[in-house]
Amino acid sequence: MAKLLEYNATMVRRHTVSDGLALFNIQLDKPLDPRAEDGKRFIPGQYMTLGLNRPPDDPMDDRPLSVVRPISIASGPEQPDLQFYIRYVARPQSALPFTHLLFSLENGERMYVRSSPKGQFTEEHTCGNRKGKTLIMLAAGTGLAPFMSIVRSKVRRDPKVSLEDHVIIHGASNPTYLGYYDELRGLAKRNGLKYLPTVSRRKESPGWKGTIGRAEHVFAADRIEETEKQLGISIRPDKAVVTICGLTGTIRETIKALAPRGFVPHHRKVRKEFQIPDDQPSTVFYEQYDSEPVINPKDVELVNRLRTEIHRALGL
């Protein structure tokens, strides 16, 4: 049986966004060592592994003693605490659900955080030097977290920085689940960020005057031109790169919607299925929060259609 985790952090504050959705500010006993090359404690877009021990109140409980989960960081590396944007999992697949333990914590209680940030869903490891292209960040639900880290870091380093070439598209079921809504609207007003929130459950949003539909729906064939006009950008691979964070469905539908315009996914196996030449740059990057294949190679009809659309758009 696994050993108990040795706690090394404190959950200093929980802010409830909506029912079952909250921001957790966590303070490490020992601050993260800054990276030698730039002095940052982590790269915006990375994640940390959080952990908790279950209460040892039942000697007959045969579940694991502890549970750990990788969670994207929502704060910038310049901020003193680590912040995480987390949704309570009502129907967990695990015998020891991490969020059930986490949401039971009170401010000031202890927990575990693995000391090294991980992950390559960062600007420098994905789109790198965009060469003047617009960075479109599309998120569903808590997939917004790494994008918050990216824009927060830029503003922390320079409060007057222009974010006019940054787009955040965030989808939620109803307006109460649009985390960071006020902060993002502020960044739009002060720094020029192009922010497009959208809600998918119209009946739950009677007072909502904004965009309706899932996040990926703004790229649908019958809506993408309207989205371009609304944001004042060109959604073409020579003008933009797209990063996506969320579950498989959001990622798959975005790739399908953008294929006719010639956007190329970065994932090596997907590129292979689509027969993309090595010298053709990737223009879609994603961080997946589940393990289902984004593009199932056994779905021959879908693979062939997307391959044909991408090749046609790029003249391959």
List keywords for this structure.
single chain; alpha/beta; Elongation Factor Tu (Ef-tu), domain 3; Rossmann fold; 7 helices; globular
Q: How would you describe what is shown here?
A:
It is a single chain. This protein has two domains: 9-113, Translation factors (Elongation Factor Tu (Ef-tu), domain 3, Beta Barrel); 134-314, Rossmann fold. The protein has a six-stranded antiparallel β-sheet. Strands 10-9-8-7-11-12 form a six-stranded parallel β-sheet, with helices on both faces. It has helices at 98-102, 145-157, 181-191, 224-231, 248-258, 268-273, 300-314, and strands at residues 9-18, 21-28, 47-53, 66-72, 82-87, 109-113, 134-140, 166-172, 194-199, 211-212, 240-246, 284-288. The longest helix is centred in the last third of the chain and has 15 residues, at 300-314. The chain is an alpha/beta fold and 316 residues long. The chain is globular, with a radius of gyration of 20 Å. It is built from seven helices and twelve strands.
